[in-house]
Design brief:
CATH topology of chain A: MetI-like fold
Order of helices and strands of chain B: EEEHEEHHHHHHEHHHEHEHEEHH
Number of strands of chain B: 10
Number of domains of chain A: 1
Distance between the termini of chain B: 32 Å
Oligomer: heterodimer
Helix content of chain A: over 70%
Number of strands of chain A: 0
Largest interface: A-B, 23 and 31 residues
Helix content of chain B: 40-55%
Shape of chain B: globular
CATH architecture of chain A: Orthogonal Bundle
CATH class of chain A: Mainly Alpha
Order of helices and strands of chain A: HHHHHHHHH
Bound molecules: adenosine-5'-triphosphate, magnesium ion
Number of helices of chain A: 9
Radius of gyration of chain A: 22 Å
Structural class of chain B: alpha/beta
Distance between the termini of chain A: 57 Å
Shape of chain A: flat
Largest sheet of chain A: none
Number of helices of chain B: 14
């Protein structure tokens, strides 16, 4: 059998497809969950970090700073282990939730830095003009600064999400059954002596997901650009 | 309309506004001139609290915008017990006030009472800064139109969000003003497609959409190509003719001569000289003003 026939045979083998499908859905669930969590967390942390210095904000600001420093300064795999074997070492705690939280918390730190930079990149004059009209800080942020910041940060956030999807492949380290692990299992079966074929197939899956995400990001970017056609 | 009392503004160690006091009357058009770095922008930005004054008071229409300063404010000092004690024994009241400040008696002996006095004074005299800003339009050197919104949305965002007007009312007001400046066909454009002069004229009517009582202009024509300066000045002149209270920082001496009721000359954070345009331009008194005018003309 040549290479392509082998690939085709993998796709037609129901048992293998089931394994891959299961791995695929796990990867997708973790990625989507972590993305949402990361974006929400990242936005919150960025807003807290940029808020005006005041007494009540001292502690939240400090927490956010420590959070970003620690998460960015330690390996993802270690964070995953800590989540799985320390924080959520609870009997029957769903593993997928552990993974979503671990990756979401990790992603949030990076996203917050991107959003922070994006908000800072919006000309201060925009905020001043809004405030000078009597708009509150929140309204100015919501209707003027954040829409412009989002446009600036979409590419960076896109990169972060793509990195996140690929990063999820390490969940096999805590015994989870994702796309990468599916390839390993099929590869070690007797019918497929070589790892090459399943690994290639799974790589194609990752490529497809990332490519799709890239397309979505491009479309969003294009829509948001409407206001600065020159 | 606006009263500034003993205003100070420091940036770090650098004193930018230095014991400045002035009064702006209703329907008055005041032009502020002065060398670069003399604190003109900072002064204007203090008026609507875009910069927080370090010290001193700003009063708008009889209400205070800055927090009351217990050491300076005569009303509070007069109401305090220490003051009463000090003045009961025939001492000259000026001396007494100086003594209070020096010994910090208010703080040391009247903690509670003093706090409640401040609170009461605040409640009676304070105007929320966001409300004040709604009544005070500001025009910036770099226009600062909202880049993510169309011209129409730029004009209507604030009055609608602040519930001063319904969307329809705001739009008809915006249309009326757009027609007045001759740009009704630009209503659905984004700011990036407008020329500098058009942007600035729209920035002016954006402030006017709030129907302000005072307009602050910070070098509205400095960032414009020379051929666009005229169109912006024309809008400002016609605004002055309607009797709008205006404070304009500008280098356009022709404009100052034509429409100013009063010209303030600022240097190193102080108002060095003030007067009618004739007084300032024809009979400058201080050396600083003479040398400044020599450079400008
Ligand atoms: N945010 C700031 N932080 C520190 N220093 C500042 C700040 N804003 C202004 N300054 C300083 O305050 C001084 C006065 O500035 P300001 O902008 O008020 O001058 P200006 O009279 O408006 O000058 P120009 O004609 O150049 O606009 C300058 O020396 C400037 O460096
Ligand atoms: Mg200036």
């Amino acid at each position: 059998m040549d290479f392509f026939e082998k690939i085709a045979s993998l796709f037609t083998n129901e048992k293998y497809m089931q394994i891959i499908w299961k791995g695929f859905t796990t990867t997708i669930y973790i990625s989507l969950g972590a993305m949402v969590l990361g974006l929400v967390l990242g936005t919150l942390v960025a807003l807290v970090g940029l808020s005006k210095k005041s007494k009540i904000m001292v502690i939240p600001k400090a927490i956010c700073k420590v959070y970003v420093t620690v998460i960015r300064g330690t390996p993802m795999a270690l964070q995953l282990f800590i989540m799985a074997y320390v924080v959520f070492a609870i009997r029957n705690f769903p593993q997928i939730l552990t993974a979503i939280i671990a990756f979401g918390v990790n992603s949030g730190a990076y996203v917050s830095e991107n959003i922070r930079a994006g908000i800072l990149s919006v000309d201060i004059g925009q905020t001043e003009a809004g405030r000078a009209l009597g708009l509150s800080n929140a309204t100015t942020m919501l209707h003027i600064v954040i829409p412009q910041a989002i446009k600036n940060v979409i590419p960076a956030i896109g990169n972060e999400l793509i990195a996140l999807i690929k990063e999820t492949s390490i969940v096999s380290m805590i015994g989870m059954f994702d796309l990468t692990n599916a390839a390993k299992i099929i590869g070690s079966g007797q019918n497929m002596a070589s790892y090459l074929i399943p690994m290639t197939v799974v790589a194609l899956f990752y490529l497809a997901i990332v490519y799709l995400l890239t397309l979505v990001i491009k479309i969003i970017e294009k829509r948001l650009r409407a206001s600065d056609k020159r | 309309m606006i009263n500034v009392k003993n205003l100070y503004k420091d940036f770090g160690k650098c004193r930018v506004i230095d014991a400045l006091s002035c009064d702006i009357k209703d329907n008055e058009c005041v032009v502020v001139i002065g060398p670069s770095g003399s604190g003109k922008s900072t002064f204007l930005r203090c008026l609507n609290s875009l910069e927080e004054p370090t010290y001193g008071e700003i009063w708008f229409d009889g209400k205070m915008l800055t927090p009351p300063d217990p050491y300076l404010h005569p009303d509070i000092i007069k109401a305090s017990n220490t003051y009463k004690k000090l003045t009961s024994g025939n001492t000259d009241s000026e001396d007494a006030v100086a003594k209070i400040k020096k010994e910090d008696l208010l703080k040391r002996h009247e903690g509670r009472e003093y706090a409640s006095l401040l609170k009461k004074f605040d409640a009676e005299n304070h105007l929320d800064i966001n409300i004040a800003r709604q009544r005070m339009g500001m025009v910036f050197q770099h226009f600062n139109l909202f880049n993510n919104l169309t011209v129409m949305d730029n004009l209507t965002l604030a009055p609608v969000k602040l519930k001063l007007k319904t969307k329809e009312q705001a739009e008809s007001k915006a249309m009326e003003l757009l027609e007045r400046i001759g740009l009704p066909e630009k209503k659905d454009e984004y700011p990036s497609k407008l020329s500098g002069g058009q942007k600035q004229r729209i920035a002016i009517i954006r402030a006017l959409c709030m129907e302000p009582e005072v307009m602050l202009f910070d070098e509205p024509t400095s960032a414009l190509d020379p051929e666009m300066v005229g169109e912006v000045l024309d809008v400002m002149k016609s605004l002055a003719k309607t009797g709008m209270t205006m404070i304009c920082v500008t280098h356009e001496m022709g404009f100052a001569r034509e429409v100013a009721d009063r010209v303030l000359f600022m240097d190193s954070g102080k108002i060095l000289e003030e007067g009618t345009p004739e007084e300032i331009f024809q009979n400058p008194k201080s050396e600083r003003l003479k040398s400044f005018l020599a450079k400008v003309f």
